[in-house]
Design brief:
alpha/beta, 2 domains, six-stranded mixed sheet, 8 helices, 34% helix, globular, binds adenosine-5'-triphosphate, binds magnesium ion
Length: 247
């Protein structure tokens, strides 16, 4: 379970308040979309969960860890609970698909036999078994993102966190990737996906948390009815009225 109670977080370098009195609970096994305009605090929310940013006030629990008083030596254990997927994939160019996925397990000193089993399992899950020996630059964009997802999954984390995982993909590929997250969720992982893509959010029936200026302004449960008013408000939060996208 991930729990935020009245959490505020300020970037010390420029005194930007990124999270402002955020209270939210994400239960084990949930799938949550986090949406909101650029600068709303979405990535900051994820950074706090990952233990990358210290909070000013409030309480954050991620699984058994209370992040306020977490010790430096506990951080690697927190991060092992989390599988992280980035928009720009962040694969190691000179390593094969197999090695990119195996890398994190080698770092923690897992035996090669166990590594092979895990890597084969996750590559099958993302349907890339036949690409194991390819280098990242020999793959399509969607395949690269699937490698990144396999890498996030290989350590069997209980929570998958993805920041704009479809930001570099066309709509059809975005849909495939989101279905893959669905599958991962149905296998038991908690999934948190930050996205700008409201069409995608609408196509999948999951909880939707909307941030605005560091505050949660709406939290629509899975299968909850989204009123027309809420939808318009969320469209506005993501594409501000008068913004260039409206022409
Ligand atoms: N490292 C940083 N140092 C100082 N301020 C930051 C830093 N990262 C983000 N901010 C500021 O904190 C606020 C929240 O930023 P955040 O990156 O969480 O937004 P976001 O919702 O992820 O936006 P985007 O959709 O553009 O990725 C913004 O005002 C941003 O300028
Ligand atoms: Mg961001």
């Amino acid at each position: 379970m991930i729990e935020f109670q009245n959490v505020s977080m300020t970037y010390k370098t420029n005194s930007t308040v990124a999270l402002d009195d955020v209270t939210v609970t994400i239960n084990d096994g949930e799938f949550v979309f986090v949406v909101g305009a650029s600068g709303a605090g979405k990535s900051s929310f994820l950074s706090v969960i990952m233990g990358l940013e210290k909070i000013d006030s409030g309480v954050v629990h991620v699984g058994p860890y209370s992040l306020r008083g977490i010790k430096k030596r506990e951080l690697p254990y927190l991060r092992r609970m989390l599988g992280i997927v980035f928009q720009d994939f962040r694969l190691i160019p000179k390593m094969s698909v197999y090695d990119n996925v195996a890398f994190a397990l080698r770092v923690i000193g897992m035996g090669e036999r166990k590594i092979t089993r895990r890597v084969q399992y996750v590559l099958k899950l993302v349907d890339l078994t036949d690409k194991a020996d390819c280098l990242p630059n020999q793959l399509s964009q969607g395949e690269r993102q699937r490698v990144a997802i396999a890498r996030a999954l290989v350590n069997n984390p209980s929570v998958i966190i993805a920041d704009e995982p479809t930001g570099n993909l066309d709509p059809a590929l975005s849909n495939d990737i989101m279905r893959l997250f669905d599958k991962i969720n149905s296998l038991g992982a908690t999934v948190i996906v930050v996205t700008h893509d409201l069409d995608l959010v609408k196509r999948f029936s999951h909880r939707i948390v909307t941030l605005e200026n560091g505050r949660i302004v709406s939290d629509i449960p899975k299968g909850g009815r989204v009123s027309a008013k809420q939808m318009i408000e969320e469209e506005d939060a993501i594409i501000p009225k008068g913004g260039v996208l409206h022409g």
